[in-house]
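Lecture 7 notes: from sequence to structure.
We start with the chain below.
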Amino acid sequence: MPWTFITYAVGMLALCGFPLFFSGFWSKDGILEAAQHWSVAKTPFYLLVFGALLTAFYMTRQVSYVFFGNYRGHKEAHESPPVMLLPLVILAFFAMGLGLVGTPAWPWFRAFLEGHAAGFSAAGFSEPGLLALMATSSIVVLLGLFVAWRIYGNKPIKAEDPDALEHAMPTIWTLLEGKFYIDEFYGATVIAFYAWWARVADWLDRRVWVGSWQVWRGSSAKALSWAGCSTSIGSTVALIRAARSWPVAADSCHASRADGCRSTCDCSHSRSCC
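Predicted structure tokens for the same chain:
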């Protein structure tokens, strides 16, 4: 599988940031340069350098297992069909070619993002500290490639066998196998805090907010009930008083009619007279 191996190797070297010839080198150095000049702290810069070392190490390990280990398939391996091979070739080409537009001599992509034209000039390499940073980055990547190749490369590897690093550096293997125990630290701190806060929020929701709402709703219902009762009593009393006044008005009207009231009702006490 020569074409698959070549394209995979190009992508692997670009991801590792292999010096000068791959786009990953220039993009990685741009990130390292920004972290190096960060005035707040230098810790991100050292972490990024360590990450570059680990990337070169585990990518070399992966290539050793995939292409130099013992074949575990049941059929003969063959080259990928064109529908898969052509995208791999295109990606490998740009993994190398795009590095040209990111060099300090021709920072086309940075100039494009900043909205101005970029010219070609070797003076870009004369920035203070740039060559030292490039040398440091290159040494780190080459060190990761070398150590991983010494442990895994150029020797038959069986996937069912214990990892070679486990025998060579058991302490480092344990640390890497545990993923630096970052997940355990995150679970014991951040996740534990959010779990505790979720229980607090649940208690506040059920005991405080819902309880307060129920008390307020009950008090409001009682107040409305008393208000409705008072309104009903008041209306009843008013009706009783009105009912009592109607006969009196009618009698006084009849009395007036008996005293000589004309046929047209001129009694102003009650309309029942008319």
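Points to note: Residues 248-274 have pLDDT under 50 and may be disordered. The CA atoms of residues 183 and 189 lie 10 Å apart.
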